[in-house]
Protein backbone atom coordinates (compact mmCIF):
# COMPACT_ATOMS: atom_id res chain seq x y z
CA UNK A 1 0.00 0.00 0.00
CA UNK A 2 2.97 2.31 0.56
CA UNK A 3 3.80 2.16 -3.16
CA UNK A 4 0.24 3.16 -4.04
CA UNK A 5 0.19 6.00 -1.53
CA UNK A 6 3.53 7.33 -2.73
CA UNK A 7 2.40 7.32 -6.36
CA UNK A 8 -0.87 9.10 -5.50
CA UNK A 9 -3.21 6.20 -6.26
CA UNK A 10 -5.23 7.07 -3.18
CA UNK A 11 -5.44 10.14 -0.98
CA UNK A 12 -5.18 9.50 2.76
CA UNK A 13 -7.03 12.79 3.26
CA UNK A 14 -10.10 11.27 1.57
CA UNK A 15 -10.71 7.99 3.40
CA UNK A 16 -14.33 7.92 2.24
CA UNK A 17 -13.21 7.65 -1.38
CA UNK A 18 -10.93 4.74 -0.52
CA UNK A 19 -13.80 2.93 1.23
CA UNK A 20 -16.15 3.63 -1.69
CA UNK A 21 -13.69 2.24 -4.22
CA UNK A 22 -13.15 -0.89 -2.15
CA UNK A 23 -16.92 -1.36 -1.91
CA UNK A 24 -17.32 -0.83 -5.67
CA UNK A 25 -14.59 -3.38 -6.43
CA UNK A 26 -16.55 -6.05 -4.57
CA UNK A 27 -19.64 -5.30 -6.68
CA UNK A 28 -18.39 -4.35 -10.15
CA UNK A 29 -14.83 -5.61 -10.41
CA UNK A 30 -11.71 -3.51 -10.99
CA UNK A 31 -12.36 -2.19 -14.52
CA UNK A 32 -15.68 -0.49 -13.74
CA UNK A 33 -14.47 0.58 -10.30
CA UNK A 34 -11.54 2.54 -11.71
CA UNK A 35 -13.81 4.46 -14.09
CA UNK A 36 -16.21 5.25 -11.26
CA UNK A 37 -13.34 6.55 -9.13
CA UNK A 38 -12.01 8.73 -11.96
CA UNK A 39 -15.48 10.06 -12.75
CA UNK A 40 -16.01 11.10 -9.14
CA UNK A 41 -12.57 12.69 -8.95
CA UNK A 42 -12.78 14.74 -12.17
CA UNK A 43 -15.75 14.01 -14.46
CA UNK A 44 -14.69 16.69 -16.94
CA UNK A 45 -11.20 15.26 -17.53
CA UNK A 46 -10.53 13.46 -20.82
CA UNK A 47 -10.75 9.67 -20.50
CA UNK A 48 -10.25 8.28 -24.01
CA UNK A 49 -9.61 9.57 -27.51
CA UNK A 50 -10.26 7.50 -30.62
CA UNK A 51 -11.17 8.08 -34.26
CA UNK A 52 -14.56 9.48 -33.23
CA UNK A 53 -13.13 12.05 -30.85
CA UNK A 54 -12.74 12.37 -27.10
CA UNK A 55 -14.91 11.25 -24.19
CA UNK A 56 -14.53 12.58 -20.66
CA UNK A 57 -14.74 10.31 -17.63
CA UNK A 58 -18.21 11.66 -16.93
CA UNK A 59 -19.39 11.03 -20.50
CA UNK A 60 -17.92 7.55 -20.54
CA UNK A 61 -19.60 6.75 -17.23
CA UNK A 62 -22.98 8.05 -18.45
CA UNK A 63 -22.85 6.24 -21.79
CA UNK A 64 -21.84 2.97 -20.14
CA UNK A 65 -24.80 3.39 -17.76
CA UNK A 66 -27.15 3.66 -20.74
CA UNK A 67 -25.54 0.68 -22.46
CA UNK A 68 -25.79 -1.35 -19.25
CA UNK A 69 -29.50 -0.58 -19.07
CA UNK A 70 -29.89 -1.68 -22.69
CA UNK A 71 -28.07 -4.95 -22.03
CA UNK A 72 -30.17 -5.58 -18.94
CA UNK A 73 -33.42 -5.02 -20.86
CA UNK A 74 -32.18 -7.49 -23.46
CA UNK A 75 -31.85 -10.10 -20.73
CA UNK A 76 -28.12 -9.97 -20.07
CA UNK A 77 -26.84 -9.78 -16.51
CA UNK A 78 -25.52 -12.05 -13.74
CA UNK A 79 -24.94 -15.51 -15.17
CA UNK A 80 -24.55 -14.23 -18.74
CA UNK A 81 -21.25 -14.68 -20.56
CA UNK A 82 -20.58 -11.89 -23.05
CA UNK A 83 -17.91 -12.42 -25.71
CA UNK A 84 -16.25 -9.15 -26.74
CA UNK A 85 -14.50 -9.19 -30.12
CA UNK A 86 -13.23 -5.66 -30.70
CA UNK A 87 -10.23 -3.66 -31.72
CA UNK A 88 -9.12 -0.76 -29.53
CA UNK A 89 -11.78 1.97 -29.50
CA UNK A 90 -14.59 3.39 -27.36
CA UNK A 91 -16.92 0.51 -28.26
CA UNK A 92 -14.55 -1.93 -26.60
CA UNK A 93 -14.24 0.23 -23.49
CA UNK A 94 -17.98 0.88 -23.21
CA UNK A 95 -18.74 -2.83 -23.61
CA UNK A 96 -16.42 -3.77 -20.74
CA UNK A 97 -17.81 -1.00 -18.54
CA UNK A 98 -21.43 -1.92 -19.20
CA UNK A 99 -20.79 -5.63 -18.64
CA UNK A 100 -19.32 -4.78 -15.24
CA UNK A 101 -22.34 -2.69 -14.34
CA UNK A 102 -24.80 -5.53 -15.06
CA UNK A 103 -22.61 -8.24 -13.49
CA UNK A 104 -22.07 -10.21 -16.71
CA UNK A 105 -18.95 -12.29 -17.24
CA UNK A 106 -16.76 -11.14 -20.14
CA UNK A 107 -14.56 -13.26 -22.41
CA UNK A 108 -12.05 -11.15 -24.34
CA UNK A 109 -11.78 -12.68 -27.81
CA UNK A 110 -8.64 -12.41 -29.94
CA UNK A 111 -9.07 -10.26 -33.06
CA UNK A 112 -6.84 -12.69 -34.94
CA UNK A 113 -9.26 -15.60 -34.50
CA UNK A 114 -10.30 -17.80 -37.39
CA UNK A 115 -13.74 -19.42 -37.35
CA UNK A 116 -12.69 -22.70 -35.68
CA UNK A 117 -11.03 -20.88 -32.76
CA UNK A 118 -14.02 -18.58 -32.28
CA UNK A 119 -16.39 -21.54 -32.31
CA UNK A 120 -14.29 -23.60 -29.87
CA UNK A 121 -13.89 -20.78 -27.35
CA UNK A 122 -17.54 -19.68 -27.58
CA UNK A 123 -18.73 -23.23 -26.89
CA UNK A 124 -16.26 -23.89 -24.09
CA UNK A 125 -17.01 -20.60 -22.30
CA UNK A 126 -20.79 -20.95 -22.77
CA UNK A 127 -21.08 -17.58 -24.52
CA UNK A 128 -24.59 -16.08 -24.38
CA UNK A 129 -24.05 -13.05 -26.64
CA UNK A 130 -21.32 -11.50 -28.78
CA UNK A 131 -20.42 -7.81 -28.91
CA UNK A 132 -18.23 -7.30 -31.96
CA UNK A 133 -16.87 -4.95 -34.58
CA UNK A 134 -18.52 -5.09 -37.99
CA UNK A 135 -15.30 -6.26 -39.67
CA UNK A 136 -15.60 -9.58 -37.84
CA UNK A 137 -19.20 -10.27 -38.90
CA UNK A 138 -17.98 -12.92 -41.34
CA UNK A 139 -16.92 -15.10 -38.41
CA UNK A 140 -20.41 -15.30 -36.95
CA UNK A 141 -21.60 -18.31 -38.92
CA UNK A 142 -19.12 -20.29 -36.81
CA UNK A 143 -21.41 -19.96 -33.78
CA UNK A 144 -25.09 -20.88 -33.35
CA UNK A 145 -27.49 -18.38 -34.96
CA UNK A 146 -29.53 -18.07 -31.76
CA UNK A 147 -26.64 -16.37 -29.94
CA UNK A 148 -27.44 -12.63 -30.04
CA UNK A 149 -25.05 -10.21 -31.72
CA UNK A 150 -24.50 -6.52 -30.93
CA UNK A 151 -22.23 -4.34 -33.05
CA UNK A 152 -19.64 -2.17 -31.32
CA UNK A 153 -18.14 -0.42 -34.37
CA UNK A 154 -19.26 -0.34 -38.01
CA UNK A 155 -17.39 0.98 -41.04
CA UNK A 156 -19.12 1.65 -44.36
CA UNK A 157 -17.06 -1.14 -45.92
CA UNK A 158 -18.29 -3.73 -43.40
CA UNK A 159 -20.72 -6.30 -44.76
CA UNK A 160 -23.10 -6.48 -41.79
CA UNK A 161 -26.75 -7.32 -41.31
CA UNK A 162 -28.53 -3.96 -41.08
CA UNK A 163 -31.00 -5.44 -38.58
CA UNK A 164 -28.31 -6.09 -35.97
CA UNK A 165 -28.45 -3.68 -33.01
CA UNK A 166 -25.48 -1.47 -32.21
CA UNK A 167 -24.26 -0.23 -28.87
CA UNK A 168 -25.02 3.29 -30.12
CA UNK A 169 -28.67 2.22 -30.55
CA UNK A 170 -28.80 0.92 -26.98
CA UNK A 171 -27.11 4.02 -25.56
CA UNK A 172 -29.50 6.36 -27.38
CA UNK A 173 -32.57 4.41 -26.28
CA UNK A 174 -31.82 4.28 -22.54
CA UNK A 175 -31.36 6.55 -19.55
CA UNK A 176 -27.84 7.41 -18.44
CA UNK A 177 -28.80 7.10 -14.77
CA UNK A 178 -26.84 4.38 -12.92
CA UNK A 179 -28.49 0.94 -13.22
CA UNK A 180 -29.25 -1.27 -10.25
CA UNK A 181 -25.92 -2.71 -9.01
CA UNK A 182 -25.34 -6.47 -9.41
CA UNK A 183 -24.84 -8.55 -6.30
CA UNK A 184 -21.25 -9.43 -7.26
CA UNK A 185 -18.78 -8.95 -10.10
CA UNK A 186 -19.33 -10.97 -13.24
CA UNK A 187 -15.61 -11.52 -13.76
CA UNK A 188 -13.29 -11.44 -16.73
CA UNK A 189 -11.66 -14.17 -18.80
CA UNK A 190 -8.46 -13.38 -20.68
CA UNK A 191 -7.42 -15.94 -23.27
CA UNK A 192 -3.91 -17.31 -23.64
CA UNK A 193 -2.12 -16.58 -26.90
CA UNK A 194 -3.03 -19.92 -28.46
CA UNK A 195 0.41 -20.37 -30.03
CA UNK A 196 0.21 -24.13 -29.50
CA UNK A 197 -3.51 -24.73 -30.11
CA UNK A 198 -6.92 -23.41 -29.10
CA UNK A 199 -6.48 -20.53 -26.61
CA UNK A 200 -7.26 -21.43 -23.01
CA UNK A 201 -9.33 -19.22 -20.74
CA UNK A 202 -7.65 -17.71 -17.69
CA UNK A 203 -10.15 -16.11 -15.26
CA UNK A 204 -9.20 -12.76 -13.75
CA UNK A 205 -11.61 -12.60 -10.83
CA UNK A 206 -9.25 -11.36 -8.14
CA UNK A 207 -9.52 -7.76 -7.00
CA UNK A 208 -6.27 -6.61 -5.44
CA UNK A 209 -4.31 -3.36 -5.17
CA UNK A 210 -1.19 -5.51 -5.66
CA UNK A 211 -1.65 -5.34 -9.42
CA UNK A 212 -1.13 -1.58 -9.48
CA UNK A 213 1.67 -1.70 -6.91
CA UNK A 214 3.60 -4.29 -8.89
CA UNK A 215 3.67 -2.05 -11.96
CA UNK A 216 4.34 1.19 -10.13
CA UNK A 217 7.09 -0.25 -7.94
CA UNK A 218 9.53 -0.33 -10.88
CA UNK A 219 7.84 1.68 -13.66
CA UNK A 220 7.43 5.45 -13.10
CA UNK A 221 4.22 5.83 -15.09
CA UNK A 222 3.35 9.55 -15.29
CA UNK A 223 0.21 11.07 -13.82
CA UNK A 224 -2.33 13.40 -15.43
CA UNK A 225 -0.82 13.09 -18.90
CA UNK A 226 -1.59 11.28 -22.16
CA UNK A 227 -0.97 7.56 -22.67
CA UNK A 228 -0.94 6.08 -26.18
CA UNK A 229 -1.91 2.40 -26.14
CA UNK A 230 -0.96 0.45 -29.25
CA UNK A 231 -1.09 -2.99 -27.58
CA UNK A 232 -4.48 -4.69 -27.96
CA UNK A 233 -6.85 -4.21 -25.02
CA UNK A 234 -8.19 -7.76 -25.36
CA UNK A 235 -4.92 -8.98 -23.84
CA UNK A 236 -3.39 -8.35 -20.44
CA UNK A 237 -0.84 -5.72 -21.48
CA UNK A 238 -3.25 -3.23 -23.03
CA UNK A 239 -6.03 -3.87 -20.52
CA UNK A 240 -3.86 -3.51 -17.42
CA UNK A 241 -2.26 -0.29 -18.64
CA UNK A 242 -5.60 1.21 -19.64
CA UNK A 243 -6.84 0.69 -16.08
CA UNK A 244 -3.62 1.91 -14.51
CA UNK A 245 -3.54 4.92 -16.81
CA UNK A 246 -7.02 5.93 -15.69
CA UNK A 247 -6.15 5.36 -12.05
CA UNK A 248 -3.32 7.87 -12.50
CA UNK A 249 -5.63 10.40 -14.17
CA UNK A 250 -4.26 9.91 -17.69
CA UNK A 251 -6.09 10.34 -20.97
CA UNK A 252 -5.84 7.09 -22.94
CA UNK A 253 -5.32 7.55 -26.67
CA UNK A 254 -6.66 4.82 -28.98
CA UNK A 255 -6.24 6.54 -32.33
CA UNK A 256 -5.70 3.50 -34.52
CA UNK A 257 -7.55 0.22 -34.66
CA UNK A 258 -4.76 -1.48 -36.63
CA UNK A 259 -1.15 -0.89 -35.72
CA UNK A 260 0.89 1.41 -37.92
CA UNK A 261 4.35 2.37 -36.61
CA UNK A 262 4.50 5.86 -38.10
CA UNK A 263 0.90 6.66 -37.10
CA UNK A 264 1.71 5.55 -33.55
CA UNK A 265 4.56 8.03 -33.30
CA UNK A 266 2.32 10.72 -34.82
CA UNK A 267 -0.24 10.05 -32.08
CA UNK A 268 2.50 10.45 -29.46
CA UNK A 269 3.52 13.77 -30.98
CA UNK A 270 -0.04 15.07 -31.45
CA UNK A 271 -1.01 14.33 -27.85
CA UNK A 272 2.38 15.09 -26.27
CA UNK A 273 2.04 11.63 -24.76
CA UNK A 274 4.20 10.75 -21.77
CA UNK A 275 3.63 6.98 -22.08
CA UNK A 276 3.54 4.55 -25.00
CA UNK A 277 2.26 1.00 -24.41
CA UNK A 278 3.04 -1.72 -26.95
CA UNK A 279 4.44 -5.20 -27.50
CA UNK A 280 8.06 -5.77 -28.58
CA UNK A 281 7.22 -6.62 -32.20
CA UNK A 282 5.50 -3.22 -32.49
CA UNK A 283 8.54 -1.53 -31.00
CA UNK A 284 10.74 -3.39 -33.49
CA UNK A 285 8.67 -2.02 -36.37
CA UNK A 286 8.94 1.49 -34.96
CA UNK A 287 12.73 1.50 -34.65
CA UNK A 288 12.95 -0.13 -38.09
CA UNK A 289 11.49 3.08 -39.54
CA UNK A 290 15.03 4.37 -39.40
CA UNK A 291 16.70 7.51 -38.02
CA UNK A 292 15.38 9.86 -40.71
CA UNK A 293 11.73 9.07 -39.96
CA UNK A 294 12.23 8.84 -36.19
CA UNK A 295 13.93 12.23 -36.04
CA UNK A 296 11.20 13.87 -38.11
CA UNK A 297 8.53 13.23 -35.44
CA UNK A 298 8.69 14.99 -32.08
CA UNK A 299 8.46 12.29 -29.42
CA UNK A 300 10.39 14.26 -26.78
CA UNK A 301 7.36 14.09 -24.45
CA UNK A 302 7.86 10.34 -23.91
CA UNK A 303 8.94 9.43 -20.40
CA UNK A 304 8.01 5.73 -20.49
CA UNK A 305 7.84 3.18 -23.28
CA UNK A 306 6.15 0.16 -21.73
CA UNK A 307 6.73 -3.11 -23.62
CA UNK A 308 5.32 -6.49 -22.58
CA UNK A 309 4.47 -9.81 -24.13
CA UNK A 310 8.00 -11.11 -24.68
CA UNK A 311 11.56 -10.24 -23.75
CA UNK A 312 13.29 -7.39 -25.56
CA UNK A 313 16.39 -8.44 -27.48
CA UNK A 314 19.66 -6.69 -26.63
CA UNK A 315 19.71 -5.13 -30.10
CA UNK A 316 16.19 -3.74 -29.76
CA UNK A 317 16.85 -2.23 -26.32
CA UNK A 318 20.01 -0.58 -27.64
CA UNK A 319 18.30 0.86 -30.72
CA UNK A 320 15.35 2.07 -28.64
CA UNK A 321 17.68 3.93 -26.28
CA UNK A 322 19.45 5.52 -29.24
CA UNK A 323 16.15 6.70 -30.72
CA UNK A 324 14.18 7.75 -27.62
CA UNK A 325 16.61 7.88 -24.70
CA UNK A 326 16.49 5.61 -21.66
CA UNK A 327 12.72 5.32 -21.35
CA UNK A 328 12.11 1.63 -22.14
CA UNK A 329 10.65 -0.68 -19.47
CA UNK A 330 10.09 -4.35 -20.27
CA UNK A 331 7.53 -6.35 -18.31
CA UNK A 332 7.88 -10.11 -18.05
CA UNK A 333 4.45 -11.57 -17.33
CA UNK A 334 1.99 -14.14 -18.59
CA UNK A 335 -1.76 -14.60 -18.70
CA UNK A 336 -1.49 -17.21 -15.95
CA UNK A 337 1.10 -15.85 -13.49
CA UNK A 338 0.42 -12.12 -14.11
CA UNK A 339 3.40 -9.93 -13.20
CA UNK A 340 6.79 -11.64 -12.73
CA UNK A 341 9.64 -9.20 -13.41
CA UNK A 342 10.36 -5.73 -14.78
CA UNK A 343 13.51 -4.55 -16.55
CA UNK A 344 14.33 -0.87 -16.15
CA UNK A 345 16.48 1.12 -18.60
CA UNK A 346 19.41 0.67 -16.21
CA UNK A 347 18.88 -3.10 -16.13
CA UNK A 348 18.90 -3.31 -19.93
CA UNK A 349 21.94 -1.04 -20.20
CA UNK A 350 23.95 -3.05 -17.68
CA UNK A 351 22.66 -6.50 -18.68
CA UNK A 352 21.26 -6.47 -22.25
CA UNK A 353 18.55 -9.09 -22.74
CA UNK A 354 17.44 -9.24 -19.10
CA UNK A 355 13.78 -9.03 -18.09
CA UNK A 356 14.89 -7.50 -14.79
CA UNK A 357 13.90 -8.25 -11.24
CA UNK A 358 10.62 -9.12 -9.50
CA UNK A 359 8.71 -6.08 -8.20
CA UNK A 360 7.08 -5.77 -4.79
CA UNK A 361 4.86 -8.72 -3.93
CA UNK A 362 6.40 -11.09 -6.50
CA UNK A 363 8.59 -14.16 -6.04
CA UNK A 364 10.46 -15.86 -8.87
CA UNK A 365 12.43 -19.10 -8.51
CA UNK A 366 14.08 -21.60 -10.82
CA UNK A 367 13.81 -25.39 -10.58
CA UNK A 368 15.59 -28.18 -12.42
CA UNK A 369 13.89 -31.12 -14.17
CA UNK A 370 13.59 -32.92 -10.81
CA UNK A 371 12.07 -29.75 -9.32
CA UNK A 372 15.00 -29.01 -7.07
CA UNK A 373 15.57 -25.31 -6.44
CA UNK A 374 18.38 -23.71 -8.47
CA UNK A 375 20.22 -20.99 -6.56
CA UNK A 376 23.47 -20.55 -8.51
CA UNK A 377 23.71 -17.78 -11.12
CA UNK A 378 23.94 -18.80 -14.76
CA UNK A 379 22.16 -22.16 -14.36
CA UNK A 380 19.08 -22.60 -16.54
CA UNK A 381 15.86 -23.92 -15.02
CA UNK A 382 12.10 -23.74 -15.31
CA UNK A 383 10.69 -20.42 -14.09
CA UNK A 384 8.08 -20.49 -11.32
CA UNK A 385 6.28 -17.37 -10.08
CA UNK A 386 4.06 -16.20 -7.26
CA UNK A 387 2.63 -12.71 -7.72
CA UNK A 388 -0.47 -12.75 -5.53
CA UNK A 389 -2.43 -12.42 -8.77
CA UNK A 390 -1.73 -15.80 -10.35
CA UNK A 391 -4.85 -17.50 -11.66
CA UNK A 392 -6.45 -20.50 -9.96
CA UNK A 393 -6.80 -22.61 -13.11
CA UNK A 394 -8.08 -22.52 -16.67
CA UNK A 395 -11.79 -22.37 -17.35
CA UNK A 396 -11.66 -25.93 -18.72
CA UNK A 397 -10.47 -27.24 -15.34
CA UNK A 398 -6.80 -27.68 -16.19
CA UNK A 399 -3.97 -25.88 -14.43
CA UNK A 400 -0.28 -25.10 -14.67
CA UNK A 401 2.30 -26.99 -12.64
CA UNK A 402 2.84 -25.70 -9.10
CA UNK A 403 5.96 -26.13 -6.92
CA UNK A 404 6.33 -24.70 -3.40
CA UNK A 405 3.29 -22.50 -3.96
CA UNK A 406 4.74 -21.02 -7.16
CA UNK A 407 3.16 -21.41 -10.61
CA UNK A 408 5.09 -22.42 -13.73
CA UNK A 409 5.38 -19.67 -16.33
CA UNK A 410 6.12 -22.20 -19.06
CA UNK A 411 9.52 -20.59 -19.68
CA UNK A 412 13.07 -21.51 -18.80
CA UNK A 413 15.67 -18.99 -17.76
CA UNK A 414 18.56 -18.09 -15.48
CA UNK A 415 19.61 -15.40 -13.01
CA UNK A 416 22.83 -13.44 -13.18
CA UNK A 417 24.98 -12.66 -10.13
CA UNK A 418 22.97 -9.48 -9.45
CA UNK A 419 19.65 -11.36 -9.36
CA UNK A 420 18.44 -10.23 -12.77
CA UNK A 421 16.34 -12.75 -14.68
CA UNK A 422 17.01 -13.81 -18.28
CA UNK A 423 14.59 -15.79 -20.44
CA UNK A 424 16.28 -18.57 -22.38
CA UNK A 425 13.13 -19.78 -24.13
CA UNK A 426 9.88 -21.68 -23.75
CA UNK A 427 10.27 -25.01 -22.01
CA UNK A 428 8.55 -26.69 -24.98
CA UNK A 429 10.68 -24.81 -27.57
CA UNK A 430 13.93 -26.52 -26.56
CA UNK A 431 15.50 -28.41 -29.46
CA UNK A 432 17.64 -31.49 -28.82
CA UNK A 433 20.04 -31.74 -31.76
CA UNK A 434 22.70 -34.43 -31.71
CA UNK A 435 22.30 -34.76 -27.96
CA UNK A 436 22.81 -31.01 -27.35
CA UNK A 437 20.10 -28.70 -25.97
CA UNK A 438 19.42 -25.56 -27.99
CA UNK A 439 17.00 -22.77 -27.11
CA UNK A 440 16.03 -20.87 -30.29
CA UNK A 441 15.93 -17.48 -28.58
CA UNK A 442 19.72 -17.25 -28.27
CA UNK A 443 20.17 -17.82 -32.01
CA UNK A 444 17.29 -15.48 -32.85
CA UNK A 445 18.70 -12.65 -30.71
CA UNK A 446 22.06 -13.01 -32.42
CA UNK A 447 20.65 -12.93 -35.95
CA UNK A 448 18.16 -10.11 -35.44
CA UNK A 449 21.03 -7.87 -34.32
CA UNK A 450 22.24 -7.80 -37.94
CA UNK A 451 21.10 -4.69 -39.84
CA UNK A 452 20.18 -6.78 -42.88
CA UNK A 453 17.64 -8.89 -40.92
CA UNK A 454 14.22 -7.59 -39.82
CA UNK A 455 12.81 -10.70 -38.16
CA UNK A 456 13.89 -14.26 -37.48
CA UNK A 457 12.58 -17.51 -36.05
CA UNK A 458 14.45 -20.75 -35.40
CA UNK A 459 12.64 -24.08 -35.11
CA UNK A 460 13.59 -27.73 -34.88
CA UNK A 461 12.69 -30.08 -37.73
CA UNK A 462 13.15 -33.88 -37.90
CA UNK A 463 16.58 -35.12 -38.92
CA UNK A 464 17.55 -38.79 -39.44
CA UNK A 465 21.05 -38.31 -38.05
CA UNK A 466 20.65 -35.73 -35.29
CA UNK A 467 17.03 -36.31 -34.22
CA UNK A 468 16.32 -32.62 -34.82
CA UNK A 469 18.16 -29.98 -36.82
CA UNK A 470 17.79 -26.22 -36.68
CA UNK A 471 15.98 -24.35 -39.44
CA UNK A 472 16.13 -20.55 -39.48
CA UNK A 473 13.36 -18.50 -41.06
CA UNK A 474 14.56 -15.00 -41.91
CA UNK A 475 12.82 -11.82 -43.06
CA UNK A 476 15.52 -9.78 -44.81
CA UNK A 477 15.64 -6.00 -44.54
CA UNK A 478 14.61 -4.13 -47.72
CA UNK A 479 17.23 -3.73 -50.43
CA UNK A 480 19.59 -6.28 -48.91
CA UNK A 481 21.05 -9.50 -50.25
CA UNK A 482 21.72 -12.39 -47.88
CA UNK A 483 22.71 -15.93 -48.75
CA UNK A 484 22.16 -18.96 -46.48
CA UNK A 485 25.86 -19.72 -46.07
CA UNK A 486 26.61 -16.25 -44.72
CA UNK A 487 23.95 -16.81 -42.04
CA UNK A 488 25.48 -20.14 -41.05
CA UNK A 489 28.98 -18.67 -40.97
CA UNK A 490 27.80 -15.80 -38.78
CA UNK A 491 26.22 -18.10 -36.21
CA UNK A 492 29.25 -20.40 -36.26
CA UNK A 493 31.53 -17.43 -35.55
CA UNK A 494 29.51 -16.36 -32.52
CA UNK A 495 27.92 -19.48 -31.00
CA UNK A 496 28.66 -23.14 -30.48
CA UNK A 497 28.69 -25.38 -33.55
CA UNK A 498 25.52 -27.27 -32.55
CA UNK A 499 23.57 -23.98 -32.62
CA UNK A 500 24.25 -23.35 -36.31
CA UNK A 501 21.08 -23.74 -38.45
CA UNK A 502 21.38 -26.48 -41.06
CA UNK A 503 18.65 -24.84 -43.15
CA UNK A 504 17.95 -21.17 -43.87
CA UNK A 505 14.63 -20.12 -45.41
CA UNK A 506 13.77 -16.56 -46.45
CA UNK A 507 10.21 -15.26 -45.98
CA UNK A 508 8.40 -11.97 -46.54
CA UNK A 509 7.05 -12.11 -42.97
CA UNK A 510 6.77 -14.46 -40.02
CA UNK A 511 3.41 -15.76 -38.79
CA UNK A 512 2.44 -13.84 -35.66
CA UNK A 513 -0.85 -13.41 -33.81
CA UNK A 514 -2.49 -10.11 -32.90
CA UNK A 515 -0.29 -9.68 -29.81
CA UNK A 516 2.92 -10.29 -31.75
CA UNK A 517 3.49 -13.84 -30.50
CA UNK A 518 5.34 -16.02 -32.98
CA UNK A 519 3.27 -18.98 -34.23
CA UNK A 520 6.08 -21.52 -34.44
CA UNK A 521 3.76 -24.38 -35.32
CA UNK A 522 2.92 -22.59 -38.60
CA UNK A 523 6.58 -22.82 -39.61
CA UNK A 524 7.11 -26.53 -39.02
CA UNK A 525 6.05 -27.61 -42.53
CA UNK A 526 7.69 -24.81 -44.51
CA UNK A 527 10.74 -26.04 -46.42
Radius of gyration: 23 Å
Report the principal-axis shape: globular
pLDDT averaged over residues: 87
CATH superfamily of the largest domain: ANL, N-terminal domain
Estimated structural class: alpha/beta
CATH arch. level architecture of the largest domain: 3-Layer(aba) Sandwich
Question: Explain this structure to me?
Answer:
The chain has 527 residues and is α/β, with parallel strands linked by helices. It folds into three domains: 62-203, Rossmann fold (3-Layer(aba) Sandwich); 210-426, Rossmann fold, CATH 3.40.50.12780; 431-523, 2-Layer Sandwich (GMP Synthetase, Chain A, domain 3). It has 16 helices and 26 strands. The strands form five sheets. The chain has an eight-stranded mixed β-sheet with strand order 2-1-10-9-11-12-13-14, sandwiched between helices. Strands 15, 16, 17, 18, 19, 20 and 21 form a seven-stranded antiparallel β-sheet that branches. It has a six-stranded mixed β-sheet with strand order 6-5-3-4-7-8, covered by helices on one side. β9, α9 (236-247) and β10 (251-253) form a beta-alpha-beta unit. The chain is globular, with a radius of gyration of 23 Å.
